[in-house]
Amino acid sequence: MATIFSKIVAGEIPSYKVAEDDKFYAFLDINPLVKGHTLVVPKKEVDYIYDLSDEELAAMHVFAKHVALAIQKAFPCRKVGEAVIGLEVPHAHIHLIPIQNESDMLFSNPKLKLSDEEFKSIEERIHNAWEGKA
Ligand code: 5GP
């Protein structure tokens, strides 16, 4: 059965997409720790990120790097932190989180509740800052 992230990639479930190429897809986490919290997923359905080949994992990180640069441009921050957990959704993904402090990366923090308009505005700001956009 397709994962929820495969359904998002296929457009069967809506998402706030910030970047996409032929192999990867980046969209806003629906329960963000901070504004700009983004997920990067491979279009290929693999549960554990370290089951990707060396080449796929490297390419995923290069794609994530350019999304991170766009996030930082759109939401000025000290750094964009990267995290891999993957216990909730069995489809490999990288969390990209704009951070001012280490504590911004704590997944035990309360999640933001954002309106559709707020998500759309964040999506647009990051997408516009992404250098890979068409
Ligand atoms: P993890 O698997 O890394 O523990 O967490 C999965 C992440 O995916 C969570 O941060 C959660 O908020 C996010 N997530 C789960 N379902 C959806 C969804 O349907 N849409 C979006 N945009 N994010 C989701």
From TrEMBL:
<dbReference type="InterPro" id="IPR001310">
    <property type="entry name" value="Histidine_triad_HIT"/>
</dbReference>
<dbReference type="GO" id="GO:0009117">
    <property type="term" value="P:nucleotide metabolic process"/>
</dbReference>
<feature type="short sequence motif" description="Histidine triad motif">
    <location>
        <begin position="91"/>
        <end position="95"/>
    </location>
</feature>
<dbReference type="GO" id="GO:0003824">
    <property type="term" value="F:catalytic activity"/>
</dbReference>
<feature type="domain" description="HIT">
    <location>
        <begin position="4"/>
        <end position="107"/>
    </location>
</feature>
<protein>
    <submittedName>
        <fullName>HIT family protein</fullName>
    </submittedName>
</protein>
<feature type="active site" description="Tele-AMP-histidine intermediate">
    <location>
        <position position="93"/>
    </location>
</feature>
<dbReference type="InterPro" id="IPR036265">
    <property type="entry name" value="HIT-like_sf"/>
</dbReference>
<dbReference type="InterPro" id="IPR011146">
    <property type="entry name" value="HIT-like"/>
</dbReference>
<dbReference type="Pfam" id="PF01230">
    <property type="entry name" value="HIT"/>
</dbReference>
